[in-house]
Amino acid sequence: GRYGVGQGAGGGGAGRPVLGKRILEDYDLQELLREWNKMGISFTGAILLAEGKETATAYDMRRDQLMTQDTVMGHAAVILKTTGDGWLYICLSETGFHWEHASGSYRRLMQAGAGGARLQAVDSSTARFAVESVQAMIEEQQVLEYANGTPHEYADFAKRLFDRVSGKNCEGKRPFDALGSNAPHKKAPPPSRGSPQPGS
Prior knowledge:
The structure is a single chain. By secondary structure, this protein is of the alpha+beta class. It has helices at residues 20-24, 27-39, 131-140, 154-166; strands spanning 5-6, 18-19, 43-60, 65-82, 87-93, 96-102, 120-125, 145-146, 172-175. α2 (27-39) runs antiparallel to α3 (131-140). Residues 173-200 are annotated as: Disordered.
């Protein structure tokens, strides 16, 4: 495979917005996606990286139930897992649009985010999706302008891409689930010694 690093849309300093259409003009990334499409490669999962995720639970009087509010903090990036050709890392920050195609462990891609911030996995999905979903998402960016302090912050690009391909909402309110993902995970009890082992 061709392991490329793209630095498509330059941000041009902290105050300059990044135009979505510049992401679309990243020829090498478009070429890589087209190549994958031709080869029949698709994606088998996505990981949302950020500086952290805050989860707060509060009573919602209107709904008369406890609600959990998730907020993804700081810089964000997304890692997409392909069927057999490594990982695709995509990030938009004040330094511009950045992507990388890598093989081996995806953990190396978490080393440093934009501005040297250390990123961690804050959400993940094992949903399968086609290369076309990513191409369509990039296509839709051309009318947007990204800058912090506006309705389209840099981190929103990764969050939106993650939500789109995973079918999840990485942020927002959801009903509090006392037994599920909000609760501390309980370990399953070890099997008792006398029980027959599967296949014995």
